[in-house]
Amino acid sequence: MIDWLRSAAGTGALDPEIDLDGTLVPIVLKRLRRARRLTLRLAPDGSEVRISLPAWAEGREAIAFAHARAGWLAEQRAKLPKRAQPEPGGEVRYRGRALKLAWDARAPRRPALVGEALRIGGPQAGLETRLRRWLETEALALAEGDMHDYCAAAGIEPVPLGLTRAQRRWGSCSDKSRIRINWRLVQAPDFVRRSVVAHEVAHLVHFDHSPAFHALLAEIFEGEIAAADRWLKEHGRGLYAAFG
Fold first, then answer.
1. Same domain, yes or no: 218 and 140
2. Residue 143 covered by a domain
3. Fewest beta carbons within 10 Å, which of 77, 138, 148, 172?
4. pTM, two decimal places
5. What is the pLDDT of residues 176-194, one digit of tens each?
């Protein structure tokens, strides 16, 4: 069982928020029954400080741990890509490409690829929402195609696939019956997105990270898993910059 708490009662005099270079950031605790130690992380968009802790640990100890690492957390937050709201004439990332956002109020509201540009019309108000919806639609279609490829390669039947807006996970497999993929992967190169889908398809057969799982993943994925993992490690946080 996982229990998310926003630090409040039982935390003593310590503040459930932390000052990171002048910005107050909330501290969020996640209790894990199987956890043996405290684990400190910053949310990919820098909006929260997250601490995983054993069920028996006290919240005030976890918060004290975060405050003791305030300098390190501030350094990590400073490295995050700055929020860049999509604007006419700017860029939109799509399948590893930087597309120029060509807005014309008289053009159709639905985005359309025109060479190296993404054309979109309608009022400028709500532009980001329309772009996100289009990217999510593209992400779902691409990921479903990927899943069918890898299910065929693994000799299994496809399962329902949905999108997630998770802040930490790129994909998940639920009880071998459903796959969820982070929609932001539509911004990454195809081989990166496909590696995540292949990973989750392999979990439909092996619900673990055993040697058999890794052998199947290597068999069905056409690229280098290490290269895809490296790309996500180096550039993954940047996928959160445009749409939060």
1. yes
2. yes
3. 148
4. 0.73
5. 789 999 999 999 999 999 9
